[in-house]
Amino acid sequence: MTPDERSTLLDSLLDGDISEADFLRLEAELIVDAEVRQEYYRRLQLGVLLEREAAESLLDPSVHAAAVLDTATDPAIEHATNDTSAARIKSSRMMLLAGTLLAIAASVFVVVPLIRGASEPQDLVAWDPNAATNSERVSRPESEPSASGFAILSGQSEAVWEGVAIGSGGLLPGGELHLKSGLVHLELFSGVQVVVQGEAIFSIDSPMQISMTRGRARAQVPNAAHGFRIKTAAGEVVDLGTEFAVDVTDDRSSVQVVDGEVELRPQGMTAVADSLRLLEGESVELMSDGQVSQTQTADLNLVGPVAFQKELAQSQSNRLQQWQAASERMRTDPRLIAHYQVDPSAEWSRQLVNLAAGRRDVASDGAVVAAQRVTDRWGRSGAALDFSRTGSRVRLDVPGSHRGLTLYCWVKINSLDRWYNSLFLTDGHEEREPHWQIMDDGRMFFSVKAPLAESQEEQSFSHKIYYSEPIWDTSLSGRWIMLATVYDVDAQQVIHYLNGKPVSREAIPAESLSEVIKIGPASICNWSQPMYRTDATFVVRNLNGVMDEFAMFSGALSPQEISEIYKVGDPY
Amino acid sequence: MTSSFAKKIRSGDFFLVNLFSEAAFMGMHTPNSHSADEATFVGQLTECQLPLMLYVRALMPGDHAASDVIQQTNTKIWEKRADFEPGTNFKAWAFAIARFEVLNHRKQQARDARLRFSDELEVTVADELVALDDDLLQRHAALRECMKSLKPESRELLMCRYASAESLAEFSKRVGRSVGGIKVTLHRLRTKLADCIEQRLVATGEME
């Protein structure tokens, strides 16, 4: 019998819905196997606790407003209440007992629906599939991750945004966007590709519509998105074919069809009959007063999405070379303890060579376990490790002791679906050892177990954890980011960084300062529990994501240095 | 007394209210040195409710008569409270009474067709349950946390199922799904919760 078959049969047994043949099979296993019995008890416990939980949720109006039993008219409760008040007026000698009874009366409220539920299911809220849909909608924010936007910024070249810069690969926010200069490539969720040239003021109204006040845009529209439109003050341009460009100013809009066909709906003309069709190679100007004139001049001379991406790839390849050169320089930094990259040419190797060469006591090479090779942030295949498979990790050994520590890595996280999502953890968690991970709510976590001073009593032991604010949510899913954390002994502070910028800074209290950090055997992107040495059961903490670079320095790197590392390593 | 209890149990009333009223009655009318002991006893019995449920259900898997037997057991425990020696293992004592009540219930169900464990297995289960680690409260806390990770509709489905004493067939009809489908869904949810609880217990066992 497989474990799953077994637990299915246990459920059937407890549901009172098991065939005689299955019952006998299960009984045979229960008789001979103590572990199967343990599983049976666990399943029973779960059922009993769920029953209690169900009873309490029925009584808690915040959980189940519609399902609260009408306790006020329940004669049993009335009975209890009367007796309670009766007890209260008796002699003081009885007060102690009355108190106990009140406590029991309180527990009665818990017990009521357990038994009532057993005999009167019709009292309970009816299970209504539609109601479930409603409740899902109501509670969506806390239960199901969501993101906002109709498009992502898939590339940019010398782009300057008004206000906060938008990162490549990120979701474009709603509302008006102001690109002051440069070129950007937008990918709408309808499949429409748009290159926008600054200066441009526009908003993405839906996956099928962009409103443009000013600027130039060239859109490539796949079959699935025919009907995509760009709205301007002078009228609308509706795509019927594949590719067109617009140049929008305050008083007119020039339209040019690169490929296929578009429909023009000049301002003020609402009937379809009033619209104009424009074929490949043709161009017109729409005036804000509704006039339309054919033009021959306008070759809008804006690159299309394909050409734009080619250019971007070229510039990215230049950046890759710069990053490689910077990595080469970093090797000899005497503070560098470990620096791992995944060599795409060593295709089947399960060894990660430690590139650090600037000191004697560097970390060992890494041993890859279970993690699989995937594409790195530069688009090179086989140059990153995917840790999402259970058990994935890179094992390493770090000798020596260090006054302070700096860690950074480039990761692409799929989701934070475990409570602890590992980045770098020593085996177990002994004194002076660092643990670096991300919580399921997106906060970065760093701790060094403080040594126990000889004079300190056990209870004054302080194990301080340095959290950042949440830095990750699902909108960053699948995007490459650089995480860094600095444990600075001299400045007595811990700083977390996201993409080269400090996101939190916290002082290390004197009593939990560990001047010396020790590491020893450790794992990247997973945790080796102490009990795992003998017990096959382990908690799942591997990072559900991809990493293509990891580095560790003895001592604290400055914010400027972190920022430089980010800039030269940023693929976007 | 016993017959009125029985009637109340059948009519959907429940044990602890009776316990409460009887204890109040005793406290008010026969003030004596026993009252402090009574209070302790009541406390122990209240604490023991979850383990008792577990115990009786383990011996009567999938049998909805189990809740009746639990009530019957509570009644019997209260009647026999004078026999309990303070300081000895309350749980073991209460379980022994429960065991007797389960057997008693079987005798009354004249030739019930229900499947039941062999005597040998039943003895083993009964012994092991007495020794089962006492971490129901931690498990309950873990369960609550784990419930949060479920989708709202899954949570609601579980709560509806566990608040009801319907058979699986009746329940699936009420929620408008096939018995097979409901079984698979519930199994998946329970397994998810069970795994989550074990992990939480492990996780809370360590330092961070």
Automatic annotation (TrEMBL), chain A:
The keyword Transmembrane helix applies. Residues 208-263 form the FecR protein domain. InterPro entries: ConA-like_dom_sf, FecR, Ferrdict_sens_TM. It comes from the Bacteria. The chain crosses the membrane at residues 95-115. Pfam families: FecR, Laminin_G_3. Keywords: Membrane, Transmembrane, Transmembrane helix. This is FecR protein domain-containing protein.
